[in-house]
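Please decode residue identities from the backbone states below.
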């Protein structure tokens, strides 16, 4: 069975052409499975159920359980189609359902605090920090997309060509404030194919470094560092742009969502905000109106 995992990884790389991050995620999930069950024997449905119970006993987050089950589903589907196993143990295993939580966001006022905090950075550090902040908040990029942006991805000095999940390409318009930042940064950063090169110009900056920069910005601004991350800024981009009148389909395209239902969760945040305004400001929502 361990050899089957190697075959599956090779299949993902050569035939599915999935990203290295996705391959690593599959490998971690299947390695966890291998450490919990006896992979020297062929598994059946009961083995999967017992593994699921172990994860629940260890209080794994529901999102982690769903991801691991999804990895296992693809793995055993591959083995069955290749006739390496005669029975797919995932055939009747269903994903546990969960209530989708609202995305965590920060206010426009908090964003201003973060933007002002970079004034305390040294010149080159400030330019880079500003650009990272504005690309995440101003374009809604994922951190994996941000670190992999190349200089050649800038189209007509107004758009950014992004290679997103599943190697799907999308074109994102750049906010006016970002354009001079890009020009200034390109004159001071190391010559590289990457917008954000690492110390070795042949490589790009790491995800961990982006997190470190954002935490430093938050700490200087006085904002709780636990509430600032690349994904929070992506959520803030979607929510704030919808609040200010953007249509759902445009936001869906800019975020690179396949299903508009994924984008619609941000409208719930907007509705929640409107409800709070009604409850706070409308006379029918106050106790005095009942008198």
């Amino acid at each position: 069975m361990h050899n089957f995992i190697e075959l599956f990884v090779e299949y993902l790389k050569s035939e599915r052409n999935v990203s290295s991050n996705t391959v690593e995620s599959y490998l971690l999930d299947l390695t966890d499975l291998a450490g919990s069950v006896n992979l020297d024997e062929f598994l059946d449905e009961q083995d999967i159920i017992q593994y699921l119970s172990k994860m629940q006993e260890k209080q794994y987050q529901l999102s982690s359980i769903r991801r691991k089950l999804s990895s296992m589903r693809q793995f055993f589907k591959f083995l069955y189609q290749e006739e390496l196993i005669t029975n797919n143990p995932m055939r009747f295993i269903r994903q546990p359902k969960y209530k989708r939580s609202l995305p965590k966001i920060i206010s426009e006022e908090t964003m201003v605090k973060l933007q002002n905090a970079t004034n305390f950075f040294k010149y080159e550090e400030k330019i880079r920090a500003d650009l990272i902040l504005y690309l995440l908040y101003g374009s809604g990029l994922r951190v994996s997309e941000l670190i992999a942006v190349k200089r050649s991805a800038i189209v007509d000095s107004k758009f950014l060509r992004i290679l997103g999940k599943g190697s799907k390409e999308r074109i994102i318009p750049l906010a006016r404030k970002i354009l001079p930042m890009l020009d200034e940064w390109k004159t001071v950063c190391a010559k590289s194919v990457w917008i954000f090169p690492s110390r070795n110009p042949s490589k790009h900056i790491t995800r961990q470094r982006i997190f470190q920069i954002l935490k430093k910005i938050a700490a200087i601004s006085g904002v709780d560092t636990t509430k600032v991350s690349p994904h929070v800024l992506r959520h803030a981009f979607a929510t704030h742009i919808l609040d200010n009148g953007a249509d759902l389909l445009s936001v869906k395209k800019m975020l690179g969502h396949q299903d508009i239902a994924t984008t619609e969760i941000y409208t719930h945040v907007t509705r929640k905000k409107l409800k709070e305004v009604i409850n706070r400001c409308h006379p029918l929502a106050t106790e005095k109106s009942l008198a």
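Observation: The chain has a mean pLDDT of 86.
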